[in-house]
Structure formats: structure tokens, C-alpha cells
Amino acid sequence: MSLTAYRSKRAFTETPEPVGQVRRSSRRRIFVVQKHDATRLHYDFRLAVNGVLASWAVPKGPSMNPADKRLAVRTEDHPLEYARFEGVIPPGRYGAGTVMVWDSGKYEPLENQPPEEQLARGKIQIGLQGEKMRGGFTLIQIARRSMNSSRRDHWLLIKSRDEYADPSWDIESVRFDRSVLTGRSLKEIKDGKPAKPRLGRRRV
Q: Residue 120: which H helix or E strand, with range?
């Protein structure tokens, strides 16, 4: 796991994103989903694995409906500090746009195999304990990027059929447009509005 690609794409004197570092001793099993209004609105799904946040861009966002198979494109690893990043990346910089901490919490592997081994084999089965996402999920690799190919590393993110499954799930519902970190909407973050009282929101 490395932050080389992450750092090479960013000028930290011009972006509020954290430089961060690989934390080899960290065994924190956290996840975060960030709503990112960049060139195209999408969601970034991240899991703490081996001291960094393994990351995927999910164009349509995660779903609590098991019938939905969401495309998840593997992106560069991010530092653990990124789990609390919320704000505006300036125009002209990589990923320019507004970032919200849409959901966060802890995760546990659903198999007797460490997360890093599941990631390497191309199939990750986990249980999430977030505010919006709960229960079992599977990330499965469907197209691996080769050394001599420009093809992206494609995965699918699929909700398990369990007590948390919701066939009526609609990620575009106004009730989901709130940060679990600051209580703000995407527009309020963009406009620089202050954080709202926590009112039970959990800490990342």
C-alpha cells in the first residue's frame, strides 16, 4: 500500500486535502463514503487496509438494495486522515469540487481472512456499521488492470440480502444529502456554512 500516486496528483500548498502518511501499525477497521461533486457527481468508497484507505469511485453511489450492482472503479490509495476530509478542492486542482463525508463507521471482515488478503484476491466481504450503510456488502473485481493496459480496475459493490436490505433505496433522496461529520448539505459545504450541532452524529 502506498501514497505515491495520491501525492503525485496533488499540490498541497493549494489544496486543503491532507498529506497524510502510511500507518503500518494501524489496525483501525474504518470505512468512509464521500460524496464528491467533481466534474461528475459520484461517491468515493474507502476502507482502511494496511495503514491507508483503499479507494473506489462509485458513479451511482452505494445502494442498500441487493438488486443493484454498483460499478466501483479502483482509484489510488488515500491516507487515513482523508476519512475526516470535508470541504472544497479548488478549481484547477485534481478532483476540483465539493467533498462531503456522506457516511462513516467501522467494518468487519465476514470471512476468516484479513482485509488485505481479500483485496489481493479480488473479493472483499464485509459488514458495515455506519449511519446510512449497515450490514453485509461484497466488493468483487470484474476487470483487473494489467501492466500494459490503460483499462481501469473495475469492481462491483453489492448489498447482501439481510435485515438491513432496502429495496426502496433512493440515494438521491433529500434526507441523505447530509454530512455525518458536520450535518451540512453539499451546497452548505460549498457555501462555507459552519458545522451544525452533532445531535448524535458519530465520530469517524
A: helix 115-121
190's enclosing H/E stretch is helix 186-190
Could you give the C-alpha distances from 200 to 130, 148, 182, in angstroms and in order? 13, 49, 11
Which tens digits make up the pLDDT trace of 11-60? 999 999 999 988 876 678 999 999 999 999 999 999 999 999 999 999 99
pTM of this structure? 0.92
How far is 4 from 48, CA to CA, in rounded Å? 17
Number of domains in the chain: 1
In a domain, 124, yes or no: yes
Whether 198 is covered by a domain: the verdict is no
Range of the domain at 89: 4-190
Rounded CA separation 114/95 (Å): 31
Cβ-Cβ contacts under 8 Å for 55 (sequence gap 6 or more)? 44, 45, 46, 74, 75, 76, 77, 78
One-letter amino acid at 202 equals: R
- Residue range 151-162, pLDDT digits in tens: 579 999 999 999
153 neighbors 122 (Cβ within 8 angstroms): no
Q: Check if the beta carbon of residue 101 is closer than 8 Å to that of residue 197.
A: no
3-state secondary structure at position 159: strand
Residue 122 bridge partners (DSSP)? none
Report the b/e string of 19-52 with b at 16+ CB within 10 A.
ebeebeeeeebbbbbbbbbeeeebbbbbbbbbbb
